[in-house]
Write a structure and sequence with these properties.
The chain is an alpha+beta fold. The protein contains 3 helices and 6 strands. Strands 2-1-6-5-4-3 form a 6-stranded mixed β-sheet. Strand 5 and strand 6 form a beta hairpin. It is globular, with a radius of gyration of 12 Å. The relative contact order is 0.23.
Length: 108
């Protein structure tokens, strides 16, 4: 059973999932700190390049299956036009101002 994005516990993560699923790059980048970083399968990646390739150009979509850590850790089915669908884990670091300073993803 999936968790609707609007029902996710953490406001920043909720907005992140909504921005990914609606392919709203402006909203997505507004959620991130200016120095935000990310990793994929344990390797740090260039955030702008990765998000363009893995989310926006390839129509990425998250279907959240489970949340833990106050909503800052997700297990989700992620799909895009490049890789198809896979089970993924996502972890978020949220700064004091409520923006995401780091996210980590990879296969679950």
């Amino acid at each position: 059973m999936t968790i609707a994005p609007a029902k996710l516990s953490d406001p920043a993560v909720r907005a992140f999932v909504a921005a990914v699923n609606s392919h709203d790059q402006d909203a997505f980048f507004a959620l991130l700190t200016d120095d935000a970083t990310m990793s994929d399968d344990g390797t740090d990646r260039d955030l702008a390049d990765w998000t363009d390739r893995e989310i926006f150009s390839s129509h990425g979509h998250l279907e959240v299956q489970r949340e833990t850590a106050g909503g800052r850790a997700l297990v989700a089915n992620y799909r895009n036009d490049t890789w198809g669908e896979m089970r993924t884990a996502w972890r978020f670091t949220v700064s004091e101002d409520g923006r995401i300073s780091r996210f980590e993803t990879g296969q679950a």
